[in-house]
Amino acid sequence: MATKGGDRAARAWALITGCAAGRPVAAEHVCWAAGKAVGADGAALSLSTGTGAQALVFATDEIAAGVEELQFSLGEGPGVDAWTYGGASLAEDLESADTAARWPFFAPAAVAAGACAVFAFPLQAGAIRLGTLDLYRAKAGLLSTEQLADALTFADAALEVMLHSAHRGPGSSEVQPFGELGEMRAEVYQAIGMVAVQLDAGLDVAFVRLRARAFTDGVEVADIARRVLSRDLRFGPEDPAGFHADT
Amino acid sequence: MPREELLAQVFVELADTLVADFDVIEFLHLLTERCVQVLEVDAAGLLLTDQADRLQLVAASSEQSRLLELFQLEAEQGPCLDAYATGTLVAVPDLAAETGRWPRFAAAAHERGFAAVHALPMRLRDQVIGALNLFGTAPGGLDASTATLGQAFADVATIGLIGERAAREQALLSQQLQIALNTRVLIEQAKGMLAERGSGSVEEAFAAMRAYARNNNRKLTDVATGVINGDILLHESARTRPPS
């Protein structure tokens, strides 16, 4: 059943694959597409290195890269907040008194570097947290409700692309079209938890395997999740695509 | 207990939760449980906007999977979506009369034994951030005072969820909504991990985590994180203990 949310995800994916122009989808394509869709002047994607530090994966331009560098070195900024709190951090005017008080070092430095607005979105799904997608504008300005919705959708796409490239399983070298596997609902997240235990792996690996299985079977991810929850389907390390429990 | 007395008790309990270093999911879960008691309905659930076209369940009076499924369906069609879209109370005293309006939702609710539903918007300034849903197993409307109380619960949920600062600043509101929904996702993941480790159900897993959080004075979210990291191993005894 097509939902409005599904349409937005499909539009995002079309833009991303358009940017990829036949090449395998990667961080750079998500950044280019997100920047364009959200009306930003540039975008950057940074991932956590595991030691708490963040590392730049891709930036569309010097200013976007500069915004990331400033946040890494100063330890403050919208991206740092988005990562720390697990929610979007929106700074539509870095020259305002409010943001100057919030990020006393970052705000003036970002403005000097050419970014007067920065919007940061975590790449996350529950306990799975990879990094942030940061968008900037040279001029101050609010994100509209539509732009915010798009930005959140691109952050979800970025999560999928990054997870997939880190944990691609056998027989699924291509990133599955984002948004085509149905909604990520409560039972999907529960099933991800179960599969992580079955595989003795992280939630990130379980996330990729569950979606890969749905893609292979041509069904929605919620269908696979329900079979996992009813213990009709188990995933094992020796059979990464999952096999039927012999009940 | 007379309603006034119960209400006073619930008010004190919710206020206590809010002034403490509270856990947003535990707070909303408690609120939905108290809705059921005070408003004399059979189930309650809160759905929030994810700010990208969808409503998502953040808390329910029972973690029974069949009930959670019904709330999820409400994100696609039904009174909840209408209350969210219009910002007004949507009262459906007799669902059987509304099968044409919401065929899938009416059928699913009927199948689960519900005959009446009321959806109350969670309003903030000129926005609606979600809705509180009340289900009844018998047909019937809410009287005016119950409806007013229900709206008060929806408003308390709103302000408790987003906090005083976020109520004034749009940017913080976005952040708080996303944090709440992501926390719910984290709890779902922990439920799955715990159910698989202990061969129990996800409902039992939730009850075990909640009991552990209460008994050890920990936040539900921290307990769920501990379960995911493997720092908290809940024993079989804790899992079979009924939720307090």
TrEMBL record, chain A:
<dbReference type="InterPro" id="IPR005561">
    <property type="entry name" value="ANTAR"/>
</dbReference>
<dbReference type="InterPro" id="IPR029016">
    <property type="entry name" value="GAF-like_dom_sf"/>
</dbReference>
<feature type="domain" description="ANTAR">
    <location>
        <begin position="155"/>
        <end position="229"/>
    </location>
</feature>
<protein>
    <submittedName>
        <fullName>ANTAR domain-containing protein</fullName>
    </submittedName>
</protein>
TrEMBL record, chain B:
<protein>
    <submittedName>
        <fullName>GAF and ANTAR domain-containing protein</fullName>
    </submittedName>
</protein>
<dbReference type="InterPro" id="IPR003018">
    <property type="entry name" value="GAF"/>
</dbReference>
<feature type="domain" description="ANTAR">
    <location>
        <begin position="167"/>
        <end position="228"/>
    </location>
</feature>
<dbReference type="InterPro" id="IPR036388">
    <property type="entry name" value="WH-like_DNA-bd_sf"/>
</dbReference>
<keyword id="KW-0804">Transcription</keyword>
<dbReference type="Pfam" id="PF13185">
    <property type="entry name" value="GAF_2"/>
</dbReference>
<dbReference type="InterPro" id="IPR029016">
    <property type="entry name" value="GAF-like_dom_sf"/>
</dbReference>
<dbReference type="InterPro" id="IPR005561">
    <property type="entry name" value="ANTAR"/>
</dbReference>
<keyword id="KW-0418">Kinase</keyword>
<dbReference type="Pfam" id="PF03861">
    <property type="entry name" value="ANTAR"/>
</dbReference>
<dbReference type="InterPro" id="IPR012074">
    <property type="entry name" value="GAF_ANTAR"/>
</dbReference>
<keyword id="KW-0808">Transferase</keyword>
<dbReference type="InterPro" id="IPR011006">
    <property type="entry name" value="CheY-like_superfamily"/>
</dbReference>
<keyword id="KW-0805">Transcription regulation</keyword>
